[in-house]
Amino acid sequence: MKTYTVAILGATGAVGREMLNILEERQFPVENLIPLASGRSAGQAIAFRGETLRVEEAQPDAFRGVDLVLGAADNDTALAMAPAILDAGALFVDNSSAFRMDPTVPLVVPEVNGNDAFQNRGIVANPNCSTIIAVTAIAALNRLSPVRSMIASTYQAVSGAGVAGIAELEAQVKALSTGEKPVCQAFPYQIAYNLIPQIGQEVNQGYTSEEMKMQNEGRRILHLPELTVSCTCVRVPVIRSHSISLNLTFDRAISPEEARQAISTAPGCRLADDLAAGVYPMPLAASNQDLVYVGRIRPDLTNPKGLALWCCGDQIRKGAATNAVQIAQLLCPAE
Amino acid sequence: MKTYTVAILGATGAVGREMLNILEERQFPVENLIPLASGRSAGQAIAFRGETLRVEEAQPDAFRGVDLVLGAADNDTALAMAPAILDAGALFVDNSSAFRMDPTVPLVVPEVNGNDAFQNRGIVANPNCSTIIAVTAIAALNRLSPVRSMIASTYQAVSGAGVAGIAELEAQVKALSTGEKPVCQAFPYQIAYNLIPQIGQEVNQGYTSEEMKMQNEGRRILHLPELTVSCTCVRVPVIRSHSISLNLTFDRAISPEEARQAISTAPGCRLADDLAAGVYPMPLAASNQDLVYVGRIRPDLTNPKGLALWCCGDQIRKGAATNAVQIAQLLCPAE
């Protein structure tokens, strides 16, 4: 059996911690695990497979002898550390957005375009969380007939802003229950009992960076260079699963029954679609597991070649940590 | 000055109570106010203009001498009481959905199709709350060029399920904070920290009754019999303002700038659209007032004749009570 020395870059954040859980759950063949983080977090204790590890500072010389780096840090850290990771000969599976639009870096959701991962030159990019969930939900439909365009409205959990986002929602709910003024730091406005229709900064004709990822990353993952997407990203007071309302236009009409059939056997998906019985995807049900739940499949009443659907997935797991570990599993086999 | 004897049918619910507030705020020329409710609520005290009134049981003989009935009860009550209201010669402005699709009953949002109200034969229907908010937001755009189709994803507050909905969200948050199991009665599943993508029952090709209202009522209010709408209605853990993500297709292309100009002077609307400055509609800001906030106006990247936008409005006020009182103001002038 082959084993690997694995470093987690950003091991103390929400995604980094979940990567540790998932490596363990999936019995990834880890020889040594090296948790790395900023100098501020160095020295913290982290549990892995029953052992206690100490977080080390992420520095260029930390990657010597490492086979695989799972990146759960910000863009600046990813960019700063990439040369040292490549010099060390390690594979870098990076969850930041730093390399996602680099044409030499594969952008991969294993259930959708796993083969692309093998074209890597040392770096594989993990896509945006909402994009992973949406493309996992629709990949089987795209195989029936190519998706031409997509209108997406997201309902994104506070975990997208990391541990601080989750803590802020919980602290705000608590403050409001005792009549205190809620503190806003992770988000620009109160998120408890509210919605914030801005994630990221404006980059294109009034769309935010987060909204444009659905089109730009979706094109690369689905191999649809002409795909157009109009996305509205909204933060909602939900802990850790993102939900997305999608209206899709295909090359040819796909019936809801045909779509259900395809999704029921699609890798990474769970069909949850029986409205009369109260069965549909919900963030609570989709949390703490790896499948993207898909339901509310019905014709788009505005468009004979359209379908509407609703999907939910755990943002920290399939939307980030699980997808990265799945990529690593493709490229670092145990045998 | 002309004054009116006004009955509120369903005076103890969230909408009925708000109707009392709004009659007072708008100095509606009330001579006598008669709060009516089910036998269960009869005898309860209700405050109006500094006086304490006693709730009476809603029975057919309660409408003698009444000029105006504001209906805030369910469909069965509205249908049961309508003959007695008409016999008494009163005007019935009804917030239930019982008469909304009756071609002899005007369905009115005063800022959009106020003139229709004058065609009444004794009953005017108040539209669905999400529909009121959406059509108020887009009426000025529809005047620039007719809307051909609309894709809508809603983010609906718990107040849509009345006082019980609000109480349930608050009780669930409290229960969860102490590790208790949340009780689900007003909603089929936990709504705290969750989303429920079902409002109403399935009526058409997988769409719910609530979702079809956006098309069916939208057609009548906007005078667009061919309008097609694909709507996804989702309950969110927000107290009392509904939000809607809209993608609209027009007869001709409308630029975001032209749209902003039109909405900035549209009755019933407040333009809140400066993404770089963090200005956009949010449910907290839109609550406890009567305007529909409109922002995030941008081209629909999937469609050269399309626009995307985001709007929020207070579901209990403009989505229900205020709109009904505005209709009454049109038809029951003080002079």
Quick summary:
Two copies of one chain form a homodimer. By secondary structure, the first copy, chain A, is of the alpha/beta class. The first copy, chain A, is 31% helix and 25% strand.
Q: Could you name the key traits of this structure?
A:
homodimer, 335 residues, alpha/beta, six-stranded parallel beta sheet, six-stranded mixed beta sheet, 31% helix, globular
Description:
The structure is a homodimer of 335-residue chains. The mean pLDDT of chain A is 97. Chain A is globular and about 55 Å long. The termini of chain A are close together. In chain A, strands 5-2-1-6-7-8 form a six-stranded parallel beta sheet, with helices on both faces. A six-stranded mixed beta sheet of chain A has the order 12-9-13-16-15-14. In chain A, strands 3-4 form a two-stranded antiparallel sheet. In chain A, helix 4 runs parallel beside helix 6. In chain A, 31% of the residues lie in helices and 25% in strands. With 335 residues, the first copy, chain A, is an alpha/beta fold. Chain A contains nine helices and 16 strands. Chains A and B meet through strand 9, helix 5, strand 11, strand 12 and strand 13 of A and strand 9, helix 5, strand 11, strand 12 and strand 13 of B.
